[in-house]
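Exercise 7b. Backbone tokens:
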């Protein structure tokens, strides 16, 4: 199908007056099968940015949440208050789990969705939670939980969940990505790629039978992990047929620069207002 995706919330904004940046991620998706919103940023800027960019948030048929982290779900309440109507919300069943992030000095901060389910349902949220690879409209899939098949994409040791009296690393099973079958290959939008960008792309190719990646963009989380993992990911990404690689959000500047070196003209640095089409 034909698709156009506009970045509404990202860590970076430049070149467009009036939009705001924050540590967060949201993408407006226009397809032959209707418009969707992927993630909502951390809160307080998505409605402003949509207005400045001339994006019609009112037109969306549903909201997809890539995972539970507050920088992707924190704008959900204001989007619901803006829409003022019932709206399907597609995510993994782990959306409301309790989780934490280890900050400098060992302090723990709650990192999950900052609203209670009942509050969101009272504002029109109709949750459709599923862990499977599923097609929500013809040609548009959600990966659901992504199998960890690479040996080196080991997740983020600073993301934690409670276990008994203590904490263990959060496996972030609920991390999902959007996969669209476009002319020329798959069009893949990542949230944070906590499941691993290589794992995610391999799973998308396996499930759809398509071996070409027309475009993949979003947060890669590579900037939050070690240099060794970043280099292994880059090596395996280069072995794939990728037409366009756009990174931002949790990628970080150092990892983005490395990817720009390796992917040359196929690399795009995402920012608020960036548009990807297929
Ligand atoms: Fe995240
Ligand atoms: Fe994130």
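Sequence design result:
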């Amino acid at each position: 199908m034909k698709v156009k995706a506009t970045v509404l919330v990202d860590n970076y904004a430049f070149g467009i007056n009036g939009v705001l940046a924050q540590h967060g991620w949201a993408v407006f998706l226009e397809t032959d099968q209707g418009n969707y919103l992927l993630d909502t940023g951390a809160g307080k800027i998505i409605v402003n940015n949509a207005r400045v960019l001339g994006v019609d948030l009112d037109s969306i048929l549903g909201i997809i949440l890539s995972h539970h982290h507050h920088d992707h779900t924190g704008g959900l309440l204001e989007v619901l208050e803006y829409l003022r109507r019932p709206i399907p919300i597609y995510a993994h069943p782990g959306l409301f789990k309790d989780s934490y992030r280890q900050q400098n000095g060992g302090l723990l901060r709650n990192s999950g969705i900052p609203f209670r389910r009942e509050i969101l349902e009272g504002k029109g949220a109709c949750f459709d939670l599923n862990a499977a690879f599923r097609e929500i409209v013809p040609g548009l899939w959600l990966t659901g939980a992504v199998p960890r098949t690479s040996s080196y994409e080991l997740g983020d040791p600073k993301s934690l969940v409670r276990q008994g009296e203590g904490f263990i690393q959060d496996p972030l099973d609920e991390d999902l990505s959007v996969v669209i079958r476009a002319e020329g290959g798959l069009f893949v939008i990542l949230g944070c790629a906590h499941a691993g960008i290589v794992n995610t792309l391999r799973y998308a190719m396996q499930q759809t039978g398509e071996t070409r990646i027309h475009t993949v963009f979003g947060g890669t989380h590579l900037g939050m992990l070690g240099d060794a993992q970043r280099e292994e990911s880059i090596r395996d990404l280069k072995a794939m047929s990728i037409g366009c690689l756009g990174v931002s959000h949790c990628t970080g500047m150092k990892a983005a620069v490395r990817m720009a070196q390796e992917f040359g003209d196929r690399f795009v640095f995402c920012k608020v207002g960036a548009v990807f089409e297929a």
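Instructor comment: The mean pLDDT is 96. The two ends are 8 Å apart (CA to CA).
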